[in-house]
Amino acid sequence: MERSLSxxxxxxxxxxLLSPLSLASLTDGLGLARSSFPSVQAQSLIRALNLFPDHxxxxxxxxxAGDSLSxxxxxxxxxxxxxxxxxxxxxxVSVEDLGHHAGYYKIEHSYAAKMFxxxxxxxxxxxxxxxxWLTGGPGxxxxxAVFYENGPFSIADNLSLVWxxxxxxxxxxxxxxxxxxxxxxxxxxxxxxxRHNEYGVSNDLYDFLQAFxxxxxxxxxNDFYITGESYAGxxxxxxxxxxxxxxxxxxxxxxxxxxxxxxxxxxxxAIQYKAYTDYALDMGIITKTDYERINKVVGPCEVAIxxxxxxxxxxxxxxxxxxxxxxxxIIARAGNINYYDIRKQCVGSLCYDFSNLExxxxxxxxxxxxxxxxxxxxxxxxxxxxxxxxDWMRNLEVxxxxxxxxxxxxxVYAGEYDLICNWLGNSRWVHAMEWSGQKExxxxxxxxxxxxxxxAGVLKSHxxxxxxxxxNAGHMVPMDQPKAALEMLKRWTQGTLSETVAxxxxxxxxx
Length: 511
Fold this sequence. Notes:
The protein is of the alpha/beta class. Residues 1-15, 17-21 and 501-511 have low confidence and may be disordered. The chain has 20 helices and 13 strands. Helix 9 packs antiparallel against helix 11 (298-308). A hairpin with a 5-residue loop joins strand 5 (153-155) and strand 6. The protein has a domain at 78-267 and 349-494: Alpha/Beta hydrolase fold, catalytic domain (Rossmann fold), CATH 3.40.50. The strands form two sheets. An eleven-stranded mixed beta sheet has the order 1-2-3-7-4-8-9-10-13-12-11. It has a two-stranded antiparallel sheet with strand order 5-6.
């Protein structure tokens, strides 16, 4: 991909990267905001959620005591225990019957990495699908989703737990993984285990699944689905492709992959970054004058992303800086708008208050219950964020058509009020994706997605591909619309998502 473009373009973008003055002159000349450095951007992300991890990344001294789970049986690659959370409202069910598990997996192809996970057996049937959830960032723990989105319980103000009636364990055997290494309770004593691309991330997840299904052979034949949001728009397609490849090569336990779902994700940056100004103008965040000025960066951004391709290096870093001028300039004009949900305002740097997560997980009783020992909880890591910098602008859509052609389902859903991974950009890359059913998908009607006889979203489907725009939701759909999100999961895994209504509605403009 890089060789197909002119050397002059490559040199121009490299110059922008290597010379801060050149990048500054580009932004200053157009009256635009400068792109933040990755460390600054990552810190901003973490502070916006009111999170203050004591350590930036889980790299421990090799001589230090690790987690108590693995220490109990150091010879096993995967060790887990059943647990019950302290301060959890009584369910009248025993720990054994509840089926909540915490575990560590010694990552096979690593120097010393251990991956932490939580597994919640279905509150329905053990024959329900196995669903894995991946939180994005990159570098944020999946415990964010456990307690604030679609897990079995939520944290009350007094740090007690209350049951979430719309937890996805109502319809699935639910897995949450802290990844990449260094995130959440996952850790290593060797900095070489910090991952930098989807090759490392997807292999770690695949190896974990092999160990997990060996530990739970009764679940190995269940349908399997991969889900997640935000930067998981990168993780999920790479992971799905890795599972599919492993199945075809008969590498180990066959994983019954049926589908993957991306919520408000970053998947095809070239299309999605170009959509920022259109979405911002449509929603009244910027003026027409702002739009025209900021759009002058779209061309250089597109060239930079093409140079990055799927395996670029310096050009991928350049594209991060060039393209994020677009987003930074929109935010600079929008004031204190919450870019995860434009209906809301941020107070200073605070956009959401997830601080109870750190308070809860740092309690000795909780840590003992989970078996994490002295391992610190890193809610979000800017070291992991920066380590994935060369991966940021790579296009992960390229591997999806092969999965669709082989009958693996894809659901892309997006809350309509999210700016950072907005529905418009997601809709555009889904529509532009070339596969055998593309024309039929583009021509298919939109239908209302009904929950309790009310329209909770707008759905478009053909064959294995579905796109759902979710009403009254921002970046975190399961948090904003928990009932609709659970219904979405149920119908999608049961194959009835597109059968919710009989009468189509007219197309939404600009789809």
